[in-house]
Amino acid sequence: MTPEPNFEELVGEDLPAEEEARLRRAHELLLAAGPMPELPPGLEEPTTGEERRREPRDENVYQLLPRRRVGAALALAAAVALIAFVGGYVVGFRHDGFTAQYSVPMHGVAGANASAKILIGSRDANGNWPLRVEARGLPKLKTGFYEMFLTHGKQMFTCGTFGGAGAKTVKVRLNAPYELQRGDGWIVVKELPGRPVPGPTVLTTA
Amino acid sequence: MSARKDKEMELALDLDVRARASNPKPRAIPAEQCSDSELLVRIAGGDRDAFDVLYRRFVRPVFALALRRLGDRGRAEDATQETFTSVWRSARSYKPERGPGAPWLYAVARNAIVDRTRARSEPPAEAPDEPSSDPGPPEEAERSWLSWRVHRALQELPEHERPLIELAYWSGLSQSEIADFLNIPLGTVKTRTRSALGRLADALEELQ
């Protein structure tokens, strides 16, 4: 159970009595209300319900945008887009038992001395894209962990979590059950267990 | 000929300016700046942008309410989607003169959640021998309403303040740990936290 925050530590001890009472009431209401839960991916995008009736979606793959165009002829364009949207490149090699089709570089945010490489495997029949992430320069966190997201505008779609290894390279297998070509980038953020919203971004493809 | 054309154009321009001056068109307020009530009125007129803004404001409070009542993320997600489908379909039934938008939306959400509760196929539980210490329906309703209001107020906090409250209250981090986690000075954490609590106190004044 999360310990209650200390009110005096939050607001200091130099407040006029009336203001302190006002803030203390807000503090008590927050404690009584409890946390807001993290939204499931299905609620990230506003829907009126009409879209759902018109476009039944594949249960196994989260779409990042409503499906407006259908056609297998776009397969090549999709592959190109998949690479283009994150500035990656086609690789097609086997590395440490992982067959990568594409590779996407990531860099540290705000001059942080961290970097990563996302290797993307072949999509399986259920819509899963296996990922292998090789990150270096992400410090071990005293509390929390790192989480990688595929992004589409302000939306974020989780691909999995991992721990940092400092100067050593950490290599982890993650998964993206999404239509990757509809995304616009990848980020890695700091996370805390049970925290409803992601923390600061530490790596990005932008 | 050319001079006449120019004159006509001038006249046309003059007329246009006069027309605008005598009958100025009201400039539409961006949906983000509208009250909940104004958004519902716009949604009733089929304004999709207004719906998107209202959705962003309320989706987490609605989901939190549904999860609290139903205790299951899948059913809570369904109830949340049903809530916003109902808002889109029946925003015309909202009457601004009867009160603000948030309580109306709360009632819509509560109905969607009750429908989900009724849809359960589980047999009713046997009555316990001992009286339960769980809150009864009136207390639970009051608690749900309080959480709803607090969560709605939290959603309105600026982006640079809300994470500080969530980290302080529900992640168990001290102020210095928050500063470390967010890579911002401790003084900034303290200032923003105090400011956020002040905003929440303003927003929740009627609950006090």
Kindly describe this structure.
The complex is a heterodimer of chains A (206) and B (208). Chain A is of the alpha+beta class and 206 residues long. Chain A is 18% helix and 35% strand. Chain A has 4 helices and 9 strands, in the order ααααβββββββββ. In chain A, strands 1, 2, 3, 4, 5, 6, 7, 8 and 9 form a 9-stranded antiparallel β-sheet that branches. The two termini of chain A are 37 Å apart. Chain B has 9 helices and no strands. Among the domains of chain B are: 32-119, Orthogonal Bundle (Rna Polymerase Sigma Factor, Chain: A), CATH 1.10.1740.10; 157-208, Arc Repressor Mutant, subunit A, CATH 1.10.10.10. Residues 1-22 of chain B have low confidence and may be disordered. In chain B, helix 3 crosses helix 5 (101-118) and helix 4 (73-90) crosses helix 5 (101-118). Chain B is mostly helical and 208 residues long. At the A-B interface, helix 1 and helix 2 of A face helix 3, helix 4, helix 6, helix 7 and helix 8 of B.
In terms of quaternary structure, the protein is heterodimer
Mean pLDDT of chain A: 77
The largest pleated sheet of chain A is described as: 9 strands, antiparallel
CATH architecture annotation name of the domain at 75-204 in chain A: Sandwich
Describe what is shown at a glance.
Chain A has 206 residues and is an alpha+beta fold. Chain A contains four helices and nine strands; from the N terminus they run ααααβββββββββ. In chain A, a hairpin with a 2-residue loop joins strand 1 and strand 2.
